[in-house]
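User: My instructor asked us to take a sequence, write out its structure as tokens, and then describe one feature of it. I'm not sure where to start. Here is the sequence I was given:
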Amino acid sequence: MPDHMHRARTMVKTSRSRETLEGAGVRLHRAFGYSEIPAFDPFLMLDDFRADRPSDYLAGFPWHPHRGIETVTYMLEGTVEHGDSMGHAGTVDAGCVQWMTAGSGIIHQEMPKPVNGRMGGFQLWVNLPRKHKMMDPRYQEIKAGEIPTVALPGGASIRVICGTIAGVSGPVRDIMAGPEYLDISLGPSIQFSHPVRPGYMAAVYVIHGSGRFDPHQGEEMENGTIGLFGESGDVVDVRASKSGVRFLFFSGKPLREPIAWGGPIVMNTQEELQQAFDEYERGTFIRVPASDREQSS
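Assistant: Let's start with the prediction itself. The structure tokens for your sequence are:
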């Protein structure tokens, strides 16, 4: 094969998201999580909380800690009200993204609120590398209008949350895993090809319609299906069905580090995990940010 020819990645795993209870009793669908470690490295979990019944999610996610990870909340419908131990409070509305880096520790709550009886969105967890596990917490809160939409010739429309498409970069920057996070819509029977960096993992989660993400796939992937690509190849090739397809695409550089995961905290060793929970019990979980330490010294 000539050097200038692109080689499409093949799909190595597909599965349906599974119903899960989280928080104070939120009924959601988990695309992948603890049981798939480390297949999606550097990503840990993807939850789909689209729901037609308010009773599925109104209990919300009361106050809880995070350390060692980043959480990415992307809303399609409704809103999530949040508050935290750093004094932040606000809402993540439809079309908006909140990219929260928990770092050394944050305690927060997330309470879903329907709009016109509708609620829907996704939360992706990104692992932090060992050397950044205890970095100062931070938020990147992105309004819907700040996320560019790129229309490509041929009928592809892409919301660029993180990464670059056709020279247009998403608003989320300076993230440790060098990730891409795209919301891609293809019209009926549209074909789409997207480059993936060598050594980076890549995955898709279908959220509307159906499509084929590997020319060797027997069945099309439908709404609520996660697909993981193999590591060899430099592009992913997608062909939408006659009804079109919309999917989330994400890729990132694997950390290939040990994972010790206990609920909302992800560290590298069981000792670090135990220390985090001990500190939470003692009330010493929240660290003083480096900028505050410098001002007080």
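For the description part of your assignment, you could build on this observation: Residues 100 and 139 are 5 Å apart (CA to CA). Try explaining in your own words what that tells you about the chain.
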